[in-house]
């Protein structure tokens, strides 16, 4: 019997990508919540190199790294909408922008949230530069994946769309500003309003509570230095 | 430009450019190689890769494709009738992609730091990291090759290209850094010889001696600018 398991963490954007992809394809799976402070022997066995989530287990074989897992899901399950387009050039563009989100957007945005002072400001500039490229890429399109449905890049950028509000409200950092990135804001609205996306986000109150705890931990650790 | 003309923007010492060239050779694609001058970026490069401004860039007709592993996958998918580069099985594809990403994200920064880091702890850590990485890849080779000469089995595949792009540089780092890297991995050592001698590789693999000269120049330049 084909067996699909996902080792993840409820608030991890990378875990979320895989959940979205599996749900998009209508694949039944067992979800196993990991405690990153106390990683399970199974996780360490299935991802000995990076020891991270998400890990997809299919028929006993583990796959790691969220974007690689997404391509695996697209290759393996033909039902449901495609995650990557068929055309080789459009596939290369999808891969390029998904990698761009991972290498340039997310790290800079994370630093801009959590590092204060000069480093935080520099990171904010880098984040804005990166978002500018995404802004130009989404122009004229409903989703990065096209007009009809979300694709690899939309799923990769899920965290950018879906956490923008919470981060602005709780941390005072507004990434998707309408004056700077009107097209990206429009995309985020469209994306977040997809019923499929709405149904598969972590509970809002839980996320708010979690961020508040992280913020408090961060401020108190700084004041004890 | 005709819709099927293929150009590759690159530079002969680059391991990333080498990957693209090997993939084009495997598929027997005719292409024009446009050499970027070291230290400058041509208008064509800036126009076709405005995001990263880096080589290699494959320009196929009007379409530019950047990032070496993305280029290799494009070549495999567009010229689908030629010898396959990515494995056909989705799981083996995922494994090949995993290790290729590992090489770029984890292994290479350590390898590079062997030459660039100042003496002491940083250099030691880099060397250890690079050696551990190659040990993992030695292990991966045994699993992926299925008894064949290459990661791809009987013929060169995606992971061979990913690691093979760095083959010359591994030899240079060993010499310049006076360290042993691949030398302690018997299967990778043999793989390296087979890879270097392959028809798709041998005419485009840079000579180690020439790479050594380039490396000396780059290391000196990087260290000098780091001091300012």
TrEMBL record, chain A:
Residue runs in coiled coils: none
Protein known as: glutathione transferase
Highest rank taxon of the organism: Eukaryota
Broadest EC class assigned to this enzyme: transferase
EC number: 2.5.1.18
Biological process, per Gene Ontology: glutathione metabolic process
Gene Ontology cellular component list: cytoplasm
Matches recorded under PANTHER family: GLUTATHIONE S-TRANSFERASE U8, GLUTATHIONE S-TRANSFERASE, GST, SUPERFAMILY, GST DOMAIN CONTAINING
Keywords: Transferase
Similarity annotation: Belongs to the GST superfamily.
Residues passing through the membrane, by range: none
InterPro entries given in the database record: Glutathione-S-Trfase_C-like, Glutathione-S-Trfase_C_sf, Glutathione_S-Trfase, Glutathione_S-Trfase_N, GST_C, GST_C_Tau, Omega/Tau-like, Thioredoxin-like_sf
Chain ranges of the GST C-terminal domain: 87-214
Matching Pfam families: GST_C (PF00043), GST_N (PF02798)
GO function terms (MF aspect): glutathione transferase activity
Catalytic activity: RX + glutathione = an S-substituted glutathione + a halide anion + H(+)
TrEMBL record, chain B:
Domain of life: Eukaryota
Molecular functions per Gene Ontology: glutathione transferase activity
EC number, as in UniProt: 2.5.1.18
Keywords for this protein: Cytoplasm, Detoxification, Transferase
Annotated ranges, domain GST C-terminal: 89-217
Subcellular location(s) of the protein: Cytoplasm, Cytosol
Pfam families (alphabetical): GST_C_2, GST_N
Transmembrane annotation, as ranges: none
Keyword Nucleotide-binding: no
GO CC annotation, single: cytoplasm
Annotated GO biological process: glutathione metabolic process; toxin catabolic process
Residue span(s) of domain GST N-terminal: 4-83
Reactions accelerated catalytically: RX + glutathione = an S-substituted glutathione + a halide anion + H(+)
PANTHER family given in the database record: GLUTATHIONE S-TRANSFERASE U17, GLUTATHIONE S-TRANSFERASE, GST, SUPERFAMILY, GST DOMAIN CONTAINING
Role: Is involved in the conjugation of reduced glutathione to a wide number of exogenous and endogenous hydrophobic electrophiles.
Family under the similarity heading: Belongs to the GST superfamily. Tau family.
Protein name as annotated: Glutathione S-transferase
Organism: Erythranthe guttata (Yellow monkey flower)
């Amino acid at each position: 019997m084909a067996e699909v398991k996902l080792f993840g963490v409820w608030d991890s954007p990378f875990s979320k990508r895989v959940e979205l992809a599996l749900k998009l394809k209508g694949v039944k799976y067992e979800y196993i919540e990991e405690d990153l402070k106390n990683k399970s022997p199974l996780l360490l066995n299935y991802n000995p190199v990076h020891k991270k989530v998400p890990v997809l287990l299919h028929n006993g074989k583990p796959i790691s790294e969220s974007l690689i897992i997404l391509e695996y899901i697209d290759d393996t399950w033909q039902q449901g909408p495609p995650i990557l387009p068929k055309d080789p050039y459009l596939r290369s563009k999808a891969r390029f922008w998904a990698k761009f989100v991972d290498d340039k957007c997310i790290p800079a945005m994370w630093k801009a949230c959590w590092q204060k002072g000069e480093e935080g400001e520099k990171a904010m500039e880098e984040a804005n530069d990166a978002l500018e490229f995404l802004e130009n890429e989404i122009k004229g399109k409903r989703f990065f994946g096209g007009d009809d449905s979300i694709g690899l890049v939309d799923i990769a950028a899920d965290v950018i769309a879906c956490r923008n509000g919470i981060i602005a409200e709780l941390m005072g950092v507004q990434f998707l500003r309408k004056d700077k990135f009107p097209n990206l804001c429009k995309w985020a609205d469209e994306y977040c309003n997809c019923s499929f996306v709405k149904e598969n986000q972590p509970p809002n109150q839980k996320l708010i509570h979690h961020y508040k705890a992280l913020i408090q931990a961060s401020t108190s650790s700084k004041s004890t230095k | 430009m005709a819709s099927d003309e293929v150009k590759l923007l690159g530079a002969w010492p680059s391991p990333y450019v080498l990957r693209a060239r090997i993939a084009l050779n495997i598929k027997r694609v005719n292409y024009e190689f446009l050499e970027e001058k070291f230290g400058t970026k041509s208008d064509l490069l800036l126009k076709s890769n405005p995001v990263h401004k880096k080589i290699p860039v494959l320009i196929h007709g009007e379409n530019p494709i950047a990032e070496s592993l993305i280029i290799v996958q494009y070549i495999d998918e567009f010229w689908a009738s030629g010898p396959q580069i990515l494995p056909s099985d989705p799981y083996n594809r995922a494994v090949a992609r995993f290790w290729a990403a590992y090489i770029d994200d984890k292994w290479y920064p350590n390898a590079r730091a062997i030459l660039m880091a100042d003496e002491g702890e940083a250099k030691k850590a880099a060397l250890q990291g690079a050696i551990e990485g190659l040990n993992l890849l030695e292990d991966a080779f045994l699993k992926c090759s299925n008894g064949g000469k290459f990661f791809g089995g009987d013929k060169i595949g995606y992971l061979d290209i990913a690691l093979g792009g760095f083959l010359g540089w591994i030899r240079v780092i060993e010499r310049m850094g006076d360290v042993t890297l691949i030398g302690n991995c018997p299967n990778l050592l043999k793989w390296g010889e087979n890879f270097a001698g392959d028809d798709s590789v041998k005419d485009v693999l840079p000579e180690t001696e020439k790479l050594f000269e380039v490396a000396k120049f780059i290391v000196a330049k990087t260290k000098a600018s780091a001091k300012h």
